[in-house]
Structures are given as structure tokens and as C-alpha cells.
Write a structure and sequence with these properties.
One of its GO terms (molecular function) is ATP binding. Keywords: ATP-binding, Cell membrane, Membrane, Nucleotide-binding, Translocase, Transport. This is Phosphonates import ATP-binding protein PhnC. By secondary structure, the protein is α/β, with parallel strands linked by helices. It is built from 8 helices and 10 strands. It has a single domain, classed as P-loop containing nucleotide triphosphate hydrolases (Rossmann fold, 3-Layer(aba) Sandwich), CATH 3.40.50.300. It is about 30% helix and about 25% strand. It is globular. The chain starts with a strand and ends with a helix.
């Protein structure tokens, strides 16, 4: 069980509160969609859950591991479990999909490994296995700059898994994609939750959250207003978070 207690987050020297006393619990293997208007705090919540931002206050517990107590930064030794996927994944455009999976996220690998791409054979096979699972085996040796938006998103997911992620926070992973590509990305996320018990929290348009997610969080003005399991939102619930 993953538990978030009294998460608060401010920016601009604590002048602007972005997240206001967020409290929630969720289990491994859930696919949770976050919905809410622009500026409501969705992206910051994802970054905090993925240990990409220090918390002003609050506790973060993953099973028996206390990641954050009373605010601050997450425990560094556990950070590899957490991946944060931006709207436009940071890939090396001149390197292949396979190399991008192997050498990790931009700015997070050593200079030698980044530029030589040196890897162990078991790393190589693990990366190829992930690419195959998500229909990208034929793109393994294609440069990332030539991939479609949906393919780049799936490469970023493969990269996170190869590097040990058990929790993925994805910030609007379908933005700018055509309907078919968006559907493929959402199916990929759902498959991860079901088969590998990966926990995924993602900001989405409400129609995709209702179609694919097992749970929906509604956020407005930095507050978690809704936590709905297994159904669509009512008209009243949509109005509550200004999405009606």
C-alpha cells in the first residue's frame, strides 16, 4: 500500500501554494488518472509523487519504506523505483530507440556511458525484451528523432522499466497524439499495471481517464476533491472540478 499524508508544496519562495494538504492511499498495480483544469496542480502532484520535487511537508510511505517524513526530498537509494514521464520525453534524437532505453534518461548517466553506449549483454537483452513487449522491436535500431510521438512515449516507458521503475508518473502522455497512438499508449500503460503490477498515476483528458483508468482523482486549486473508483464521473462531480 502506498500512502500520502498531508502533502503540501509551494513555489516562488513559499509565496504560492500549489498543493494543499493532499491525503490519499492506493495500491500497487493501479492505473490512476488525474483530471482537473489547467493550473490545478496536476503536474506538480505527479512530480512530487515521482520524487522529482521536495515536499514542504507531509509523509510518503511505500509499503514499509518511509520515503519522506515531514517533508523534504525522497530517499535517494529508492529513487530508481520512480519514473517521471514528461509530455515530450527527453530522448537523444541521434541515438536509436534501443540506445535510449539502455543509457537512461538525459542528464542521469555517466559521460562515458552516455557517449559510448557501452552496456552488458543482459542489459541489451532486457531492453530488447521490453521493446518487443510494446510493439517496438522493429524500431529498436531507428533513431529516436524519426519516431512518432506515441513511439517515443513507449520508448520512454521501456527505459523506465529497464532501469527498475515500479512507479510511473506520466504527465499527459497522450498530448498531441492522434487517436490511434493515444489508444496504444493507454493500452500499454494498462498492460503494465495488470501484468507487472507497476503503479501508474497520469494526468489525462477526462474521456481517456474514464475509459482506461481504474481510479480517477479530481484536483482543483491544489486540492484533491475527488477520488472515484471503477466508474465515470457524474455531472455534479465534473462541475466540482470545473470540467463540466
Amino acid at each position: 500500500m502506498i500512502k500520502v499524508s498531508h502533502l503540501k508544496k509551494s513555489v516562488d519562495g513559499n509565496k504560492k501554494q500549489v498543493l494543499r494538504d493532499i491525503n490519499t492511499e492506493f495500491a500497487q498495480g493501479e492505473l490512476i488518472g488525474i483530471v482537473g483544469p489547467s493550473g490545478s496542480g496536476k503536474s506538480m502532484l505527479l512530480r512530487c509523487l515521482a520524487l522529482r520535487e521536495p515536499w514542504d511537508s507531509g509523509d510518503y510511505i511505500w509499503n514499509e519504506d518511509k520515503l519522506i517524513q515531514g517533508g523534504g526530498k525522497g530517499t535517494y537509494k529508492l529513487r530508481s523505483r520512480f519514473a517521471y514521464l514528461e509530455q515530450n520525453p527527453s530522448l537523444y534524437p541521434e541515438r536509436t530507440a534501443l540506445k535510449n532505453v539502455l543509457i537512461g534518461q538525459v542528464g542521469q548517466v555517466s559521460a562515458i556511458r552516455r557517449f559510448t553506449g557501452m552496456v552488458r549483454s543482459d542489459d541489451y537483452m532486457g531492453a530488447m525484451d521490453e521493446l518487443e513487449k510494446f510493439g517496438l522491436l522493429d524500431k529498436a535500431h531507428v533513431k529516436a528523432g524519426k519516431l512518432s510521438g506515441g513511439e517515443k512515449q513507449r520508448v520512454a516507458i521501456c527505459r523506465a522499466l529497464v532501469h527498475g521503475a515500479k512507479f510511473i508518473a506520466a504527465d499527459e502522455p497522450t498530448m498531441g497524439l492522434d487517436p490511434k497512438s493515444a489508444e496504444r499508449v493507454m493500452e500499454t500503460l494498462g498492460q503494465l499495471c495488470k501484468t507487472q503490477k507497476t503503479t501508474i498515476v497520469t494526468a489525462l483528458p477526462i474521456e481517456l481517464a474514464e475509459k482506461y483508468c481504474t481510479r480517477i482523482w479530481g484536483i482543483h486549486s491544489g486540492e484533491l476533491k475527488l477520488d472515484i473508483v471503477g466508474r465515470r464521473l457524474t455531472s455534479g462531480e465534473k462541475r466540482l472540478i470545473d470540467l463540466a
